[in-house]
Target: NUDIX hydrolase
Amino acid sequence: MKKFEEKTLNRKTIFEGRIINLYLDEVSLPNGKTSMREIIKHPGAVAVIAITEEDKILLVEQYRKALERSLVEIPAGKLEKGEDPRESAKRELKEETGYTCESLEQVTSFYTSPGFANELVHIYHAKGLKKEKELHLDEDEFVSVMEVTYEEALNLIKEQKIYDAKTIYAIQYWQLLKQQ
Amino acid sequence: MKKFEEKTLNRKTIFEGRIINLYLDEVSLPNGKTSMREIIKHPGAVAVIAITEEDKILLVEQYRKALERSLVEIPAGKLEKGEDPRESAKRELKEETGYTCESLEQVTSFYTSPGFANELVHIYHAKGLKKEKELHLDEDEFVSVMEVTYEEALNLIKEQKIYDAKTIYAIQYWQLLKQQ
Model:
């Protein structure tokens, strides 16, 4: 997997933040030339495909400052340091939707933006959903929960309210489940 | 779409690079409190699902410095300033694989990491593929082209050589095409 390896000649730390770090790497290319690479380090994230007994998917609407608008997404959150992704997925599902689940099946994992960032998202399918009473949101978290049918989800994609990789993947996964 | 809007109180420019910019925004939350948001601005990207007459998908292996390893991905590249995404997709397909196409159908677009970045990827399905003679790679670009069957693609996912959002989405899209 080291094909075309770019060796680090020098790394400059530009920013170390609460969520992301930014580094500027000087690298030597396979042809011996040098180039610069702008690199974001991110702790990784989890996301949950949760479909209720009424065949509705749980979605959350929240504001995304990077886009200056809100998006409708599957429940998700970044990994806390040292946290097991499965535990993180259970926690985010409960915090953001008020639902618990009996089991979580791993569906896939993917890097979201390998061109500049190392964010890896683990996607789980939650089974045996059960609605608890209260939501447990972080102090700075403002989300509204939705339960939508497959057709409603397709409309949300058409309206570009669902507009992110993990959620569009999740709806496509749901389509495949329906065809089984 | 301005639900739960976070108003910008102050923006600090941390870094302006060749590909990404990093800003640190102080925002006012819906409850009146303030918080900080780490924001990456990215020009956006295109990616191409290209399946040959022999029912093989075109993939490229390249080194990803952010991951310190190579990945196998569908042909893709970032948008040049002011460039039409469709033209960009044609250009990247030709540059990275040596193939041209008769037409491009838009499949979907998605934000890759809405939690911290505004990178939007446009995904096209290339039709009427034709192999040209030469590859036209950028000077700093080292890729190897692969043509793989659906079953080989599934194995590449299992081996985590295919491991990024757009390519895993593309293989799932191919699965749906096969079921039509």
About this structure: Chain B touches chain A through 74 residues (CB under 8 Å). Residues 7-41 of chain B form one domain.
